[in-house]
Design goal:
The chain is α+β, with helices and mostly antiparallel strands. The chain is 29% helix and 19% strand. The chain has a single domain (13-45, 72-375), classed as Jelly Rolls (Sandwich), CATH 2.60.120. The strands form four sheets. Strands 3-4-12-9-14-7-6-5 form an eight-stranded mixed β-sheet. A four-stranded antiparallel β-sheet has the order 8-13-10-11, with no helix packed on it. The protein is globular.
Length: 377
């Protein structure tokens, strides 16, 4: 049921905050309230907006002709060409899509349905999982990224779930979505391990013992992201420029699209329009988007790169996405692997406590790739 609240572009920010954050309606509530003009705290600075071409069906199109992230067929994991494609994509792009990965389509569709089920709950039920009300730090419902630190808010609601064990998740995660999400996480386990084995082999880390496995994938977080229809999508963003702090991120996006990845161009190819440096990641049914996170950039000493990405707001469709962030444990100390430095290569990053790195990321608004400076020597 749509909330009844008269919010306009001139409504006092405190009233918008009360409605969106404290009462738990989120931007979904704003979208459904009949809002015609964006409240001013969602209007992004000009340099942060994403200019896109929108097709007749409302789906976002790429702004750069002839550029697209690699699509890798995973049907033959043992083929050296497959391994080479994964490593080259991680080195050059930091992003790639995988198809024929072995996760059943019905499991993926179950996650999409579960995400919609959660966000269709009444605001008071969702708000039980907000920072102020949640019984656990492992379960968090919220909006934007870090509202208290942001000069302009992002047009997104989310449910963030830190995975400790199936038992804890069964007790704490919201019942409309927990079973489908746990099944999905179980099915992605093999894919994650295979990807990491391939990437580590290129770094001469040939054996993933318990300690290495813990360092690479000792903790996981799954987010359900909801981007409702926006009255002025050209004035705001769904998610601002950032790179992930993970080892790897496994992203499921629906058919709407809206994810953009920053690409590095040759100097002579660069144009004045900053948006020409962004490539749309087109949705493909059943595919998963993989991206390198800051933790793996640090551990590979920059060989694999985490890349800036952002999400546009959409004026025609609601959109969902579901990332799994595969991370070191909070207590892990991360730094370049000795195997990477064995030939005398100079370390670019110092040793940092992973939980300190993550806290630094969440203390501030999205700011592109600046978080990784925290670990630079």
């Amino acid at each position: 049921m749509a909330p009844t609240l008269a919010i306009t572009s001139t409504t006092e920010p405190s009233k918008v905050t009360e409605f969106v954050i404290h009462k738990g309606f989120g931007v979904k509530g704003l979208s459904e309230s009949g809002l015609r003009t964006l409240p001013k705290q969602y209007i992004q600075p000009l340099e942060e907006r994403v200019f896109t071409t929108v097709s007749n069906n409302g789906h976002d199109q790429a702004t750069m002709a002839g550029k697209s992230i690699p699509i890798i067929d995973m049907s033959n994991w043992e083929d050296p060409k497959t391994a080479n494609s994964i490593c080259e994509a991680a080195e050059k792009w930091g992003f790639f899509q995988i198809v024929n990965h072995g996760i059943p389509l019905e499991v993926i569709e179950g996650v999409e349905k579960a995400t919609h089920r959660f966000f269709e709950l009444p605001a008071e039920e969702k708000n039980r999982f907000s920072k102020e009300n949640s019984s656990s730090n492992s379960v968090r419902y919220g909006t934007s990224f870090t509202p208290m630190a942001e000069k302009a808010l992002e047009w997104k609601d989310y449910l963030s779930l830190f995975y400790v064990s199936d038992d804890e998740a069964s007790q704490l995660w919201p019942s409309p979505c927990k079973d489908d999400l746990l099944e999905y996480m179980k099915k992605t386990e093999t894919v994650i391990k295979r990807l990491l084995e391939v990437l580590m082999k290129r770094l001469n880390v040939t054996k993933l013992d318990k300690a290495k496995e813990s360092m690479l994938m000792g903790s996981k977080r799954i987010n359900l992201n909801f981007y409702p229809i926006c009255p002025n999508p050209d004035l705001t963003v769904g998610v601002g420029r950032h790179s992930d702090v993970s080892t790897l991120t496994i992203l499921l996006q629906d058919e709407i699209g809206g994810l953009y990845v920053r690409v590095e161009e040759e100097e002579e190819e660069e144009e004045e329009n900053n948006n020409n440096k962004w490539v749309h990641v087109p949705p493909m049914k059943g595919s998963l988007v993989i991206n390198i996170g800051d933790a793996l950039q640090i551990m590979s000493n920059g060989r694999y790169k985490s890349v800036e990405h952002r999400v546009v707001a959409n004026g025609n469709n609601d959109r969902i996405s579901v990332p799994i962030f595969v991370n070191p444990k909070p207590s892990d100390l991360i730094s370049p692997f000795p195997q990477v430095l064995a030939n005398g290569e100079k370390a670019l990053y110092k040793q940092v406590l992973y939980s300190d790195y993550v806290k630094h990321f969440f203390r501030k608004a999205h700011d592109g790739k600046q978080t990784v400076d925290f670990a630079k020597i």
